[in-house]
Amino acid sequence: MSRRNFIPAGGSFAALAVAVAVVPLLSGCGVSTKGDFNRGKQLFAAQCSTCHALKDAGSTSTIGPNLDAAFSQARASGMDPETIAGVVKNQVENPRPAEETTGGANPSVSMPADLVTGEDLDDVASYLGTVAGNPEFKGPSLPDDPGALVFSQNNCAGCHTLEAAGASGTTGPDLDSAVPNDLKTASAVREAIVDPNKRIAPGFPPNVMPQTYGQEISSQDLNALVQFLLKCSGKGAQTAPCQPTSGK
Fold first, then answer.
1. pLDDT higher at 24 or 55
2. Which of 5, 124, 142, 182 keeps 20 to 30 A from 240, CA to CA?
3. Measured between alpha carbons, how far is 151 from 71 in angstroms, rounded to an integer?
4. Any residues with CB less than 8 A from the CB of 12 and at least 6 apart, and which?
5. Longest pairwise C-alpha distance within the chain
6. pLDDT tier at 118 (50, 70, 90 boundaries)?
7. Is 155:64 a contact under the CB 8 Å cutoff?
8. What pLDDT is attached to residue 87?
9. CATH architecture label of 9-131
10. Mean pLDDT value of segment 171-197
11. Torsions phi, psi for 60 (to 5 deg)
């Protein structure tokens, strides 16, 4: 799971908008031709989606800038994917310094340095250069189920694969794979969400999934999420109730 210490949405969006406006000379740097789109999408889901909203990734977080909003006007004005990728790469390599508070520098209000580097950064930049602010990418399709929206809004797609939610994350277990029999009851699924370290999936380390969903997700939404997962995980997307209803 990615780290959450990003700049809050307000000042951060303005800073990114300025960066988009003043870095046209990055055009032609070739970033988007170097990176792997599909791998970049997976890396974004795992490393960036918990802080940034992006339609194509199905992420809705407001901790950091909305990347579609940040790049839509520039793209509409003719900024090419290579330039957008260059801006993204520059912002990641040179994050805004932590703002000063009365108690000194606060690392919780700035994007961490070296979040992704090297080839990983090329891949993420290539992906964002293609999709950020691009109206052709409308985001994952979701079934008409309140739990699907809860899954999307809490960025579960950043770590899990689930066809019914258009999710392809690989940081956590693949929810389209066979679900263990002891995770097929509402109480067991709820416990896996609110107390994820109690039962660690084979092959995955502890302390990766946030342990605060019990406080961050309302009881009503949590119930909806549990029912959605019971209905649509374990190849559930092959059943009619789990079929997406809209989106690209």
1. 55
2. 182
3. 26
4. 6, 64, 65, 96
5. 56
6. very high
7. no
8. 95
9. Orthogonal Bundle (1.10)
10. 87
11. -130, 15
Domains 9-131 and 146-242 share a fold: yes
The pLDDT of residue 158 is: 76
Output DSSP code: residue 60.
E
pLDDT of the residue at 130: 96
User: Domain map of the chain by residue range?
Assistant: 9-131, 146-242
Q: What is the pLDDT of residue 227?
A: 94
Token pair for 146: 């309140």
What CATH number is given for 146-242 in this structure?
1.10.760.10
Interatomic CA distance for residues 24 and 210, integer angstroms? 38
Mean pLDDT (the chain, rounded): 80
Instruction: Write out the two tokens for 91.
Output: 């912002």
Strand, helix or coil for residue 111: coil
Calculate the CA 226 to chain-centre distance. 20
Average pLDDT estimate for 211-223: 93
Record the tokens describing residue 73, joined without a space: 């006007």
Q: Which tokens go with 64?
A: 């950091």
Cα separation, 32 vs 233, whole angstroms = 34
7: CB partners within 8 A, 6+ apart? 15, 64, 65, 96, 99, 109, 110, 111
| Phi-psi category of residue 97: left, alpha or beta, with phi > 0 → left and psi -120 to 50 → alpha | beta
